[in-house]
Amino acid sequence: LEGLLTGGELSVLALFDKPDPLDGPFFEETIYVTPSRLSASDQAAIAARTSEAATALGLREGPLHAELRIDLARGDYWLIEMAGRSIGGLCSSVLEFGAGVCLEEVILRHAAGLPPGSTTRSGAAAGVMMIPIPKGGLYRGVDGETGARAIPGVTGIEITAKRNQPIVPLPEGASYLGFIFAQGPPPATVEATLRAAHAALHFHIDPALTLDVVGGER
To answer: What pLDDT sits at residue 89?
Structure first.
């Protein structure tokens, strides 16, 4: 949930679904899609739980980022993360409000005491995929980027890994290879577009060479 607190009152700016299972004990966050496909009652319950937690933590002004797990069968909502910040990385670029206002402008206008303008998300469904690291080693490059960009609905691909950069997968690692962005009419189509673009990318990762220092006299 991306929100904005004003005098302790929460305004929900966007609610993202994470359609992948995300099973523990650790997992990579991959796909975010908004608007949520949850029912209106579930979304209201998530907002209420988030607002309660913000109040308990003493958060009253500014951006709010919260992540929750839900059990739809039981109607349970568990808060697993909350911070007085906006969504990280390049993920915020999928959010636009009113006549194309970005999330950062909404936050800055609030901080400056200016009218925020419309905080209703504009445009079609949107999503982002944080490209996971499949294995450790040295990143050498990627093939298929042109084809992935040509998939209908893909709005951008940003490969943030640098050539010859050592990369480490979870649980020891804490980064991604890059980001895929997509838009489309229904959220399900956006999710499918992100998966198709990811499948079109072929990353080249060579084994990393390790050197052990062996002591001893010459």
So the answer is: 78
Residues contacting 105, CB < 8 A, separation 6+: none
Give the model confidence (pLDDT) of 96-133 as tens digits. Answer: 998 889 999 999 999 999 987 888 888 789 999 999 99
Which tokens belong to 131? 């490209």
The count of structural domains within the chain is 2
Task: Verify that 115 and 148 share a domain, yes or no.
Answer: no
Task: Please indicate, yes or no, whether residues 4 and 111 belong to a single structural domain of this protein.
Answer: yes
Length of the chain: 218
| Domain co-membership, 8 together with 64 | yes
